[in-house]
Amino acid sequence: MPSTQKVGVQFKPGIYQIYGGLWPRCRNPVGQSGGDYIKACTQYAKKIGLPILTSHKVTSIIREKPDSGRVLGVEVDLGNGKKEYWKANKGVVAAAGGFAANPEMCAFFDPRLTKLNTTNQPGSTGEVLKAIQGINGLAVGMDYIQCIPWTAPGYKHTADIFQAIEYTVFLNKEGKRYVAEDARRDVIRDATLAQTDQTVFPVCDADGFDKNNEYYNEMNHRALENGTLFKADTIEELAKLINLPPKEMAQTIKEYNEMVDSKKDPLGRSELMLSHKIVKAPFYAGPIGMCRHHTMGGAKINTKAQVIDRDGQVIPGLYAAGEITGGIHGSNRVGGNAIADIFTFGRIAGENAATGS
């Protein structure tokens, strides 16, 4: 398959550090981030005559024997009460995503995540991963479940003013910073879940709002309308709108601005991310909480994207790519790296399945 640009993905100019990215190395598509890849690849599939079937659910993977032999195909629920067995000519590629949209499955590995919302798509519920385990496939890293800030507990909507993290600080309900905002996602997850009501507030100024709107303009303006993002001409006024103590919040912002001058943060924020003071009115803030985002655990694969069994052997005829796999990102997926994972191993899996190698 050609590169994403060749199939029609257009990118915005400029490189930035996405939340959880740890370094400025992210580029955004012109449109709706991940949706742009799907739209372009869908059009390319149509162009080359590759059918895309919806409302078809894989209910099991068929192997010669329950825990040995070659994978022969899959059982498919057609969505109308009928099932069919589809034979694979050379191989089966599992690319069904993770299980972040399955609260019970996530809670089995991390009980803290039971009542959280999810940012993942509704189909990320883990059934195909379970099917792989059912034919002796090895699953690794299942307790590595990533969360990111999104909709706060008790809210239906959110704003996003933390994509350009160098413009933003996170405050708890006491009006204090509690974590380095450019830290690893698992570090921020654990710190946020320990805060009062598991709810915190990203804060930025007018420059930060404009910068974040390069990525989430429509969402942020809707949030201003529906009461999940607030703005004010002073920090003290903003604190009152979001029910934070004005004196403490103003002192926190003052101290942060001094850190930008000194390039030193007691919480460990890097010098590179101490680059923009929060000084230009109006100021913005809104409630966010942790949401289940990405599951780093899944089927163990090798460099050929072949699935490995519990004895460390290749399962012939079975390949996997993307979030359904485990062992790729370790305990923390760096922001933006899922794209590299998906397209790199997706291409490897597709090529090897097509040739039967």
Features of this protein?
alpha+beta; three-stranded antiparallel beta sheet; single chain; elongated; FAD/NAD(P)-binding domain; 357 residues
Could you write a compact summary of the structure shown?
The protein is built from 8 helices and 15 strands. The chain has helices at 33-47, 103-109, 127-134, 185-193, 206-226, 235-241, 246-262, 337-355, and strands at 57-65, 68-77, 83-87, 92-94, 139-140, 145-150, 169-171, 199-204, 230-232, 283-285, 288-295, 298-300, 306-308, 314-320, 325-326.
What does this structure look like?
It is a single chain. The protein has two domains: 57-146 and 294-355, FAD/NAD(P)-binding domain; 156-286, Alpha-Beta Complex (Flavocytochrome C3, Chain A, domain 1). Helix content is 29%, strand content 20%. The protein contains eight helices and 15 strands. Strand 1 and strand 2 (68-77) form a beta hairpin. The two termini are 17 Å apart. The model has no long low-confidence stretch (mean pLDDT 93).
Individual helix count: 8
What is the correct CATH architecture of the largest domain?
3-Layer(bba) Sandwich
Shape: elongated
CATH class of the largest domain: Alpha Beta
Q: What kind of oligomer do you see?
A: single chain
Number of domains: 2
CATH domain topology of the largest domain: FAD/NAD(P)-binding domain
Note the beta-strand portion.
Answer: 15-25%
What is the total tally of β strands?
A: 15
Give me the Rg, rounded.
23 Å
Could you give a short account of the major beta sheet? Answer: 6 strands, antiparallel
| CATH homologous superfamily identity of the largest domain | FAD/NAD(P)-binding domain
Segments where pLDDT lies below 50 for 5+ residues?
Answer: none
Helix residue percentage: 25-40%
